[in-house]
Amino acid sequence: MKPIQHHQRTFADQDFQQSLNQLKDIVQANNEEVTESNTSDSLHQVISKHTDIIDLDAWEDAVADIEQYLQQKTNKSKNP
Hints:
The chain is an all-alpha fold.
């Protein structure tokens, strides 16, 4: 192989490797965006489910507090 051809092949190989690296970076960036999107959606669903549970728990706590308040008020009115 002539030195000029060898140099051209080396240059082409380097250029090709650089293009592959750029393509790899683009694919990784796209995969990260998809993963973040899926994670975000999944996280949103989990938060929504837990929010429903938290709201239910909050309502139950509020009802218990009201019942306790009414019970104390009833006991005070019976025993002045």
